[in-house]
Every structure is written in structure tokens, then in C-alpha cells.
Backbone:
């Protein structure tokens, strides 16, 4: 495949093109889904090749992608990509431009502890079946599911500047959920929340302690049926990792994707309240808050030695000590903003065009354990495990409901609340952060399903996170 | 591909202990995305794939192959046969689709070929020039799609369908204030696209959007919901109309067939025969897609029920899934509706809705692409985007007026393979609509 992709880039290394790059991916996927204790779906999609050719001509991008990597088809794709750029350039007034980069050559191969594609079938299905059996409907539990998605992706990238990378990664998305009902209402609990994906193989089921938490989610879902709701208009809230990852994702991650500043995502994902003039002076959060994009950390699913337009993986501080410092950018947008590109251009598969995406977007840890933080809280709630999420077009007004809240009184958890809902404005919220736990609580949470772009792409990405406390947050929503 | 499919069907038919379903999809798309009144990028994509589901008794295994060839298929079948005996059973599985009825043949032209990039950029250039005098630029997407689907199964089903939707979404955004308005076209027949009319509707919205920007306090408002908004609420309501939601005890409509769930002015039907709707010939499983009453004069009538959940719940199978929703119209003009409101809101579009509790239809979401203040029966000002937290059941129960004409609203299904659904709905007036906060942005 290396020889093949190098032959393709030779054909694109012509003076009439300002820049070109090629991606080829080979992806294997497997999915297991148990419902109410029984295997409902089991399937695979293996040896799926995809190729994408992107060219910059007359200051306009043209792209062609396909799942067919035969030589004859590649010739057609090259011509289509060039033709798309030429036609698109007739409706262009600000030609795309960016600084050249020195070539980088990179190889990377990740090996999971337990390869889900090679392990014994009985062990794999047997373990998931046992989980499904442990949470199957009984008592107030009326519905349950256990699912696993495994993905292996080998990627080749090359561009006309001489950069080349070849990578192999494994990612896994394990999840279980129970739904309890008393006839009138339903309450649900998941483990370990909706951001359960990570770099790795089947070992994630063991690392995330699925077996050890089946009884807990059954009990909590059942108890939620009779739990009260939060009555405080405003409250101090501690947000656990099972939900804070999504708060970070929605109100910082998407807000600082710089393609949104220029309206490139208006027709689907939306805009952002962030403006170029805010860089270097906007108080995005309290001085405890440092948030960085780190595609150089191989522990997260956002790791890459090179992004999908040839920028080496790196750490970029987006918010440093509360001040907005940088953005997640492409080479083109970095050039427009006068920034260095942040290595955030990613395409889900070879036949997708790269977009500005989160990689490993992380909240830097401070100090202390979650237990200490609870002990230091006089009155408040520990909220965890996302249930409902919503944020506006500009990523400014959010409202989240978590599956469960744990009421804290005088430094101790004294009960639970159902459907705890909080809302706020992004800047006010991050400025109200007065504690962030330390490295002992910091961990990666990730997703397979961050949607963006047209045609739509679902991206795999990670968030490094530690529980944090936010003061006087709106917790009363009447409806 | 025909030879590959024929060979695959022969191979599977020889395995008499198996039931099987084969789906062949061929898909192409052309996407032109634009921003600041210029091209962002042009994308062409294509794929051929075959999906196979095998059933041995109550055991099931499925695989998908992109860009299939004989070798890949042979390997996948060998793997599936080696696995399937070892799998646990799904006791709720009874049979695959048995409906062999065919729809009247309908051939779609390949609009990718019919609508060139040059034509697209000329249309966009015209629209950009139309809004430029008001200091607005256009942003959005112009898409043509072509897909062919053939579905075969061991019960003798062999059905094909093709679609070639076109979707044009134009947002006009003010160059300084960022006030945004939206106009869309969706359908399979581009002859129905009237550039002059589209441009004039867009400019009319732009004119509304040039007024003063204000904020409003949280509270209960009388609102005019644009057809796109009420259509989206009905789409979300349809979640609870599925037999799957019923089976999972998360349906608002559990135990309510034949009950008055909304006022008599609400009728909702899933109707592929409506000429204004982008029709579906068959369900995902291959069941013939036909008209299905959902709510008649406020009375709940039917759940969407596929083959699997028909056997599981005992409900009759209909194969519907809410792809062709029509909300009845009423007897008022839009002018009468707006004119009847002393102080209220006109809401153009919604954003990022999510259920809080699907069983009670409670959700939260935001307004987008044009929210306006109505004062003394007239649209007077632009309002910042607002958050609402509501129950859809309550919204429908509080509809006091429906417009006498309905509009076809295209929605793009944008995950994986792009598709378009359309819903037909009128403007509606809703009392006591619950605004819970402002976004302070536009």
C-alpha cells in the first residue's frame, strides 16, 4: 500500500496544483449488541478500504473519495478532485492559502492488551453475555442492553510536501444500560456513561470494571424512581468524569474549532461565540482552568504522529490559566488567524475530507481526590453520567441533565436526586470553577460519535478529565 | 455487480437451513459547501456495498462488505458459517420480512448528472448577489445524491428502489451582527426549484432580520412556530410511536391506542402518497410503505411496527417509520395568526433538541436562524436565540391556530449516508410556550 500511495502522490505533484494529499484507510469493525439478556445483533465489516484525494487548485479545495482503490478508479478520482476544485474556484473570492511545512515521516502501531479481532470467540461473547444476563429485566428493570464496538484502522497518509505516515490503531466502545420503570415514569443508568470509548481492545471491559458495576446501576436506576428532584434554584455542583467530559466537549471543544469562527460549519454543526479578537485576552474560565489539545498523547484516541493534512501531532494550550490563548485549526484557518496550525485536521475514513476536529482535548488536573472535594463541600450535588445534552448554535447557552445526582450535605453524600438539570452560559460556568481534582482522578473518556461536516462524519476522540466543582450554578428548570 | 449478487444468492439458497437477507447499496454524492458567499469545498463520493444477515433458527450473524468481490464474499460467508452455530439465540426473533407486494415502479433520474457544478455555482452567485446589498452573505450546502438499493431475502422478496434527492440549504448571515435566516429546497425534481421565488423568500427574511436585536425574559409566550419547527417536534414525537419504544417502556403512547391524546384539531399521518412528500416505496426491511394514520382528530391510532417488533409485541406489522409525516393544516392565514398576537414570538427554526424524558415527551432545545418579536400583531424586532424546555405533548395540546396552507420541509439526514426526509406542516400558534433562558447570542 505504501508503494501505491506514493505512486498516486507522484501523479499529483504537478505545478498546476498548489497542494495535494491522499489518505488510504483499511478499517475492520465488529459490533455486539445484547438486549434484555439476549444477543440481538452481532456483525462485522472487515477489510474495508477507503481512499480520498484532496487537491488545492486556483485557491479552492476539490475532493473525491471512494471505497474502491483499484487503479482505474484512482485515475477517475484524481480527475474528479481536480475538476471539483476548478469548478468551485469560479465561486471564490478569498483563495485558500497557507504556509508550507517541512516533510515529516512517521510510523506508529498500537497493540491492545486483548485484541478483540483475534481473541477466542467464546471468551468475547461469553463475557458480554454474562454482563447482559446480570442486568436483564427483573423487578423494576424493564429494559437493558450491553454493547461493544471494536474498530481497527490502518491509515496511510501522504502529501505533495513529502510528508508520509503509516499508523495502526485499535479503539473500543463498551457500554451497558438498564432502564427502570414504575409504570408511570422511566429512569436509566449507564456504565460507565456515554463517553466510554477509548484506545485499546477488549481490556477496556476489565479496566472500566463493568462486572463490578452491574448491581450498582440496577440499584441506582430502581432507586431513582422514588428519588426527589433538586429544589435549589442555584447550587454548587461537582461534576464527575462520566459527564464532565461532555461538558468540556460541547462548551469548549466545539466552541474553539476555528472553522466555526468563519462560518464553515453554519449549515450543520453551527457557529461559535468565540471571535478572533478574543485570543490572548478573553477570560474563558477561572485561573484554575487550563485546557489543551494534545494529539501527541498516545493514550487517547486523538493521538496521531501527523494529522490529516501533514501537521505533526502536538500539544496546544487552548485556555491557559483561564485565558483563551489558541484555537483548534487547520493550516488554512491558522493562516487566516495568524496562528501556527494546531494539528487538528482529521477525517474519519480515507474517503472523507479532513475537517477541524477535536483530538485529545483535556482539562489539566490540579490537586486532590474526589473524596476530598466532596468532604470540602458544605451543600451541593455530585452530578454524573450524561442523560440529556443541548447547547446553542454559538456554544454559549448549555443545558445538561445527568442520570443521577448525589446530594452532598456537610461534606457527605446523603442521598440521590433524579434528573438533575443545570444550565448556564459557557464563560460564566467555567469562571465559576473553584476546584479541579488532581492527577489521581484524571483519566481519558472518549466517544466514537462526534458528528460534524457534510457529508456527515462521526469522529473518534478523547477527553482527559478530572472531577471539578462549579459554584452557584442554575439548577432549577420548570417545565 | 449483478453477477456477484446472483452468485451470492445461489450460494445462500443452497444453504437450506438458513434464512438470509441481502442488501446491495450503490451510493454517490456531490456536496458543494459554501461560506462567506464563496466555495468552501466540493466533494464527490461513491460506494458500493453488500450487507448480508444470516439466520439459523434464532441465531443471527450479519456482515457488510464495501466494494465487494467474489473473494471477499466467500471469505465472509465462510467466517459467518463458522461462527453462527456458537452464538446464543434471540428468542424474540421469529421470521424475516414476508411482504412480497411491490410498489408501482418509479425511476429516479440521477440528479448528480442532471445538475452540474457550474449550474450550482451560478445559482449560488445569484443568491449571494441578492443578499449582498443588505450586508448579508450566504453560507450552506448544495447537495445531489443518487442511491440504488436492492433487497432480497430467502422468503422470495426481491425489491429495488432508487432515489436522487437534491438539497439546497442557504443561510443568509449578516456580515457584522451575525443575524441568520434560513431558506431551503429539497426534492427529487429540480424543475420545481424556482430561483426567483427562492431568492425573493430569502430576501424577505433578510429584511425582517435587519431590524433591532433585543432579548426577552424567560417565561410563557404565545408563539408562531414556523412549519420547520412544528415538523421537528412531530418528528421527535414519532419516537414514541414506534413499537420498539413501546417494547422498551419509553413510549408516551403506551396503552393509549384509541385514546384522545391531543385536541381535535390535530391529525398526523404517515403518508407516502402525498404528492408533496419525498416518498419511500419500501421500509428498511422491504415491507410496502403505505399510508398510516397516527393521530386522527387527537386520537392516537397506530404504532410504527416492523417485522421483528410485530412478532415481539403482537401489534400488526405496517413497515412504517415516519418518513412521510403530514400534519393537517387549518383555516387561518399567516397574517391572521401573527396579527392575533399582542406580544409574542415568531420562531423560524430549532437547534440541538434532546429528550429529558421521552416517556413524558419532555425535552430541551434552542431557537436558531431567526427568532423575532411580535408586537401588536406585527414582527418588529430580532430576538437573540432562546432556550426552551417543554413537553411536546403540551405544545401540541396548546395549538390554537393552524395555517390554511402547509409547506414541505426538507430535513437532511446527515450521518453516514446522506438522505433527505420531508415533513409537510403549516405554521401554528402555540400558547404558553415555555422559554427558559436566553443565549445572549444570535
Residues:
Amino acid at each position: 500500500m505504501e508503494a501505491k500511495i506514493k505512486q498516486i502522490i507522484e501523479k499529483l505533484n504537478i505545478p498546476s496544483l498548489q497542494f495535494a494529499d491522499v489518505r488510504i484507510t483499511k478499517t475492520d469493525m465488529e459490533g455486539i449488541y445484547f438486549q434484555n439478556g439476549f444477543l440481538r445483533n452481532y456483525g462485522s465489516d472487515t477489510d474495508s478500504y477507503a481512499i480520498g484525494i484532496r487537491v488545492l487548485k486556483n485557491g479552492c479545495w476539490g475532493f473525491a473519495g471512494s471505497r474502491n482503490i483499484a487503479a482505474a478508479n484512482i485515475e477517475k478520482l484524481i480527475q474528479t478532485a481536480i475538476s471539483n476544485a476548478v469548478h468551485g474556484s469560479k465561486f471564490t473570492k478569498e483563495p485558500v492559502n497557507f504556509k508550507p511545512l517541512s516533510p515529516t515521516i512517521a510510523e506508529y502501531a498500537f497493540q491492545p492488551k486483548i485484541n478483540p479481532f483475534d481473541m477466542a470467540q467464546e471468551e468475547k461473547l461469553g463475557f458480554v453475555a454474562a454482563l447482559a444476563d446480570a442486568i436483564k429485566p427483573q423487578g423494576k428493570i424493564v429494559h437493558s442492553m450491553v454493547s461493544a464496538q471494536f474498530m481497527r484502522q490502518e491509515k496511510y497518509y501522504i502529501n505533495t510536501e513529502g510528508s508520509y505516515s503509516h499508523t495502526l490503531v485499535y479503539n473500543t466502545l463498551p457500554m451497558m444500560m438498564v432502564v427502570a420503570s414504575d409504570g408511570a415514569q422511566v429512569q436509566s443508568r449507564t456504565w460507565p456513561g456515554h463517553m466510554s470509548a477509548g484506545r485499546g481492545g477488549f481490556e477496556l471491559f476489565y479496566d472500566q470494571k463493568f462486572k463490578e458495576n452491574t448491581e450498582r446501576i440496577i440499584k441506582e436506576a430502581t432507586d431513582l424512581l422514588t428519588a426527589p428532584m433538586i429544589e435549589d434554584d442555584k447550587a454548587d455542583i461537582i461534576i464527575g468524569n462520566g459527564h464532565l467530559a461532555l461538558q468540556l466537549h460541547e462548551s469548549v471543544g466545539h466552541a474553539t474549532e476555528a472553522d466555526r469562527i468563519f462560518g464553515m460549519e453554519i449549515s450543520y454543526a453551527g457557529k461559535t461565540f468565540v471571535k478572533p479578537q478574543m485570543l490572548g485576552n478573553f477570560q474563558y474560565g477561572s485561573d484554575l482552568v487550563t485546557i489543551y489539545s494534545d494529539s501527541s498523547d498516545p493514550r487517547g484516541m486523538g493521538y496521531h504522529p501527523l494529522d490529516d493534512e501533514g501537521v505533526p501531532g502536538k500539544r496546544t494550550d487552548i485556555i491557559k490559566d483561564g485565558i483563551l490563548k489558541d484555537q483548534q485549526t487547520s493550516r488554512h484557518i491558522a493562516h487566516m488567524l495568524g496562528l501556527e496550525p494546531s494539528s487538528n485536521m482529521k477525517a474519519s475514513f480515507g474517503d472523507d475530507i479532513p475537517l477541524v476536529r477535536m483530538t485529545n482535548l483535556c482539562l489539566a488536573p490540579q490537586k486532590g481526590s474526589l473524596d476530598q472535594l466532596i468532604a470540602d463541600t458544605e451543600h451541593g450535588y455530585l452530578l454524573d453520567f450524561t442523560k440529556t445534552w443541548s447547547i446553542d448554535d454559538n456554544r454559549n447557552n448549555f443545558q445538561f441533565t445527568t442520570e443521577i445526582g448525589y446530594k452532598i450535605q456537610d461534606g457527605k453524600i446523603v442521598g440521590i436526586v433524579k434528573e438533575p438539570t443545570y444550565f448556564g452560559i459557557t464563560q460564566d460556568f467555567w469562571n465559576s470553577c473553584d476546584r479541579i481534582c488532581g492527577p489521581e482522578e484524571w483519566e481519558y473518556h472518549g466517544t466514537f460519535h462526534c458528528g460534524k461536516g457534510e457529508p456527515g462524519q462521526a469522529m473518534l476522540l478523547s477527553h482527559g478529565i478530572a472531577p471539578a466543582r462549579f459554584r452557584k450554578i442554575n439548577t432549577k428548570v420548570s417545565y | 455487480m449483478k453477477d456477484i449478487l446472483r452468485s451470492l444468492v445461489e450460494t445462500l439458497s443452497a444453504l437450506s437451513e438458513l434464512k438470509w437477507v441481502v442488501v446491495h447499496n450503490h451510493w454517490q454524492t456531490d456536496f458543494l459547501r459554501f461560506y462567506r458567499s464563496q466555495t468552501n469545498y466540493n466533494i464527490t463520493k461513491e460506494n458500493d456495498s453488500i450487507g448480508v444477515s444470516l439466520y439459523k433458527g434464532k441465531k443471527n450473524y450479519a456482515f457488510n462488505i464495501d466494494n465487494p468481490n467474489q473473494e471477499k464474499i466467500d471469505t465472509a460467508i465462510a467466517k459467518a458459517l463458522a461462527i453462527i452455530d456458537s452464538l446464543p439465540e434471540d428468542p424474540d426473533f421469529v421470521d424475516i420480512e414476508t411482504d412480497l407486494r411491490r410498489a408501482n415502479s418509479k425511476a429516479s433520474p440521477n440528479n448528480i448528472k442532471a445538475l452540474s457544478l457550474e449550474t450550482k455555482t451560478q445559482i449560488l452567485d445569484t443568491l449571494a448577489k441578492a443578499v449582498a446589498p443588505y450586508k448579508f452573505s450566504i453560507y450552506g450546502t448544495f447537495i445531489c445524491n443518487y442511491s440504488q438499493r436492492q433487497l432480497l431475502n430467502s422468503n422470495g422478496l426481491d425489491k429495488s428502489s432508487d432515489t436522487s434527492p437534491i438539497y439546497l440549504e442557504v443561510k443568509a448571515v449578516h456580515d457584522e451582527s451575525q443575524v441568520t435566516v434560513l431558506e431551503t429546497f429539497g426534492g427529487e425534481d429540480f424543475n420545481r426549484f424556482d430561483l426567483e421565488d427562492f431568492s425573493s423568500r430569502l430576501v424577505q427574511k433578510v429584511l425582517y432580520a435587519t431590524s433591532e436585536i433585543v432579548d426577552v425574559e424567560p417565561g410563557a409566550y404565545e408563539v408562531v412556530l414556523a412549519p420547520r419547527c412544528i415538523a421537528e417536534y412531530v418528528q421527535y414525537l414519532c419516537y414514541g410511536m414506534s413499537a420498539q419504544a413501546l417494547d422498551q417502556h419509553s413510549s408516551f403512547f403506551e396503552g393509549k391506542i384509541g385514546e384522545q391524546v391531543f385536541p381535535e384539531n390535530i391529525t398526523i399521518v404517515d403518508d407516502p402518497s402525498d404528492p408533496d412528500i419525498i416518498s419511500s416505496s419500501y421500509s428498511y426491511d422491504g415491507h410496502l410503505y403505505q399510508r398510516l394514520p397516527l393521530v386522527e382528530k387527537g386520537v392516537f391510532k397506530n404504532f410504527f411496527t416492523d417485522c421483528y417488533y410485530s412478532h415481539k409485541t403482537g401489534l400488526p406489522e405496517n413497515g412504517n417509520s415516519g418518513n412521510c409525516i403530514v400534519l393537517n393544516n387549518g383555516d387561518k392565514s399567516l397574517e391572521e395568526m401573527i396579527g392575533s398576537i399582542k406580544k409574542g414570538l415568531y420562531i423560524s427554526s430549532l437547534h440541538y433538541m434532546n429528550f429529558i424524558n421521552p416517556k413524558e415527551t419532555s425535552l430541551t432545545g434552542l431557537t436558531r436562524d431567526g427568532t423575532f418579536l411580535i408586537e401588536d400583531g406585527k414582527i418588529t424586532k430580532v430576538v437573540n436565540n432562546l432556550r426552551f424546555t417543554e413537553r411536546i405533548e403540551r405544545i401540541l395540546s396548546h395549538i390554537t391556530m393552524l395555517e390554511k396552507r402547509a409547506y414541505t420541509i426538507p430535513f437532511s439526514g446527515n450521518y453516514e449516508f446522506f438522505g433527505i426526509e420531508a415533513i409537510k406542516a403549516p405554521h401554528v400558534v402555540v400558547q404558553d410556550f415555555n422559554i427558559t433562558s436566553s443565549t445572549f447570542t444570535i
Q: What stands out?
A: Residues 70-84 of chain B form the longest helix (15 residues).
